[in-house]
């Protein structure tokens, strides 16, 4: 029997298989403005770890609020309709762990904050900067090592990956539990949907 | 008071330490090659959950330790608590026929005792590991023993699989799995549990260090390099290296228990050759390192069109098992257990990050359900299979590993049959033919077994039925390495039961 696809045993622990994402792109074709490109595509590092990760500290409330506009944007555009008030407190506490413990993400977060400010200068609001920050098409060969590439990887993607389970965004698909959500004891009838046998 | 050395802080060493400390007048020093590690830490959990860090990468084998037919990388972990840090926690018992492989099939070897001998220790191990399971399922017989936690209910996704199994007359049941029913909050990030609900030796050991702070010492980053013998039969202790200083030391003991996992346990016996044991301790008949076996893995997945009920994966661990092909009737071909379930094509966060619109996500979600089946089968040993010592030392201070592995023809043939069964189930469930993908993996270090196999006589194996190295008085091996055969079931409940049995024997012999 041929091995049609590569998989390792750790993945098999969940016996899950990931296929490619095939769907339409609502923001196809966004490009960076000329005055943004140089800054956003500046080379930073191709390290797989957050840079200067021994530098610890706490984000100011204003810095946090700026990052949090990402969650508001995602919640609105994808119609997740999650209550973000409680979620904001959880995210704040978790970002604190990411910046006060090593490897610290503080410098990556501050890089992302500068980029948000930069792009927002060309839009009416921070909210309107998000499509550019998240989805602009960039052809740079070493994109992952640039300021924007790193912000997408270390900051924006991680915040979204946090938001979907922990804010309860997944519920808008009718699911009652989701990887990363604290669904409650398995004996509880509300922790996951049972199959009627 | 007896001084005991345990080599390896995995589940075998930890369960053994707990039982020895509870039952006797002993003090235990445990040596572990890997570093400290903290379970249920929110920051580590975040890094794992968000996919930002491969949290176990620092603990995998040195790259020089590798073999393409029997991979070690990404299987065992060299760290406090060992490999259960990333195990699945599936804990089926072996079945009565598994202890009689050779008599029934002519392959491999029989165990020196039967299922009934191990049954009471299985029950104790199920309590120690905090297993959830179906106490009414008597295949294999439970003799009235209750699991500490009741089984989980089947999920909606299980129901899709179950409907197909029922129409094919394939039996199924509830998975027994190490998920503590009072702690588990169904987070589904079980490779690193935020609340210590999945059994891990690292958490068990952490508790043990508190309970027996004056009697248990753990030395991490301290690979044991040699077992020291005083004449042919008595061990007097070990030699180890302090990885932080690079300096070698020795430590004395009244008894030594080797719990380094299947690969390292046999290597340590081989590396301890001396004038009385020129080929390695316990190796006068040449069985140390031989008979290596693991579990070939088979899988298949497909898309079932339509998902009107919006079924998704809501319980992050297996709740269904079929042991329909794990019976005496299949033993001569290679028995198998399997599980199945549903999963999303792509996670919601992946789709948002990839800029998939909500409309497209809704359409994808309701258009089909990805079903997957996966199982493990018994491997028969191939005469070539063996582990031997390399010449260099890894960065972890261990000698590199040479592995020679052949695949048994019977296994190759049967594994295709099992994959065909998965395909039949998927098709019966309604998966489109064109969507079905299949595959199989050779065994790897995850369930590696049998390199220090148990036997009644020293001509057939390495340890006796009480896990004492043949020809020695106070040296034991407790590991999957002592299994004479591997069955289809996952090994860890069985090695835990053996650890409880060994501690009971040791205390009684005192
Ligand atoms: C991905 C994965 C999933 C798995 N899932 C399951 C499952 O669902 N069910 C199941 O039953 N089993 C499962 N297993 C197998 C299970 O993890 C092992 O059976 C179990 O961990 C073996 O325990 P052990 O204590 O014998 O060895 P280990 O857990 O490997 O511990 C041995 C320890 O000894 C240390 N050591 C080795 N040599 C030395 C030395 N010379 N000096 C000092 N220390 C040393 C090692 O660093 C290690 O920490 C899985 C394995 C993997 C890889
Ligand atoms: S599902 Fe249970 S065992 Fe798994 S991570 Fe969540 S709490 Fe831990």
What does this structure look like?
The complex is a heterodimer of chains A (197) and B (510). Chain A is mostly helical. Chain A has a domain at 33-166. Chain A is built from seven helices and no strands. In chain A, helix 3 (61-77) packs across helix 7 (147-166), helix 5 (106-120) crosses helix 6 (126-135) and helix 5 crosses helix 7 (147-166). The longest helix of chain A is centred in the C-terminal third of the chain and has 20 residues, at 147-166. Chain A starts with 8 loop residues before the first helix and ends in a 31-residue tail after the last helix. Chain B folds into two domains: 1-87 and 92-128 and 200-294 and 382-401 and 448-510, FAD/NAD(P)-binding domain; 136-199 and 296-377 and 406-442, Cholesterol Oxidase, domain 2, CATH 3.30.410. Chain B is 25% helix and 19% strand. In chain B, helix 1 (11-23) links the parallel strand 1 (2-7) and strand 2 (26-31). The longest helix of chain B has 20 residues, at 409-428. Chain B starts with a strand and ends with a helix. The mean pLDDT of chain B is 95. Classes of the chains: A mainly alpha (197), B alpha/beta (510). At the A-B interface, helix 1, helix 4 and helix 7 of A face helix 2, helix 5, strand 11, strand 13 and helix 8 of B. Bound molecules: flavin-adenine dinucleotide (FAD) and iron/sulfur cluster. The site of iron/sulfur cluster has 14 residues of chain B, from loops.
Work out the largest interface and the residue count of each chain: A-B, 71 and 87 residues
Mean pLDDT over all positions of chain A: 85
Number of strands of chain A: 0
User: Which regions of chain B have little confidence, pLDDT < 50, spanning 5+ residues?
Assistant: none
In this structure, how is the largest beta sheet of chain A organized?
Answer: none
Number of helices of chain A: 7
Shape of chain B: globular
Class computed from helices, strands and strand pairing of chain A? mainly alpha
- Specify the biggest β-sheet of chain B: 5 strands, parallel
Approximate strand percentage of chain A: under 5%
Q: Which regions of chain A have little confidence, pLDDT < 50, spanning 5+ residues?
A: 1-26
Q: Supply the CATH class of the largest domain in chain B.
A: Alpha Beta
Number of strands of chain B: 18
The helical percent of chain B reads 25-40%
Structural class by secondary-structure content of chain B: alpha/beta
The end-to-end span of chain B amounts to 11 Å
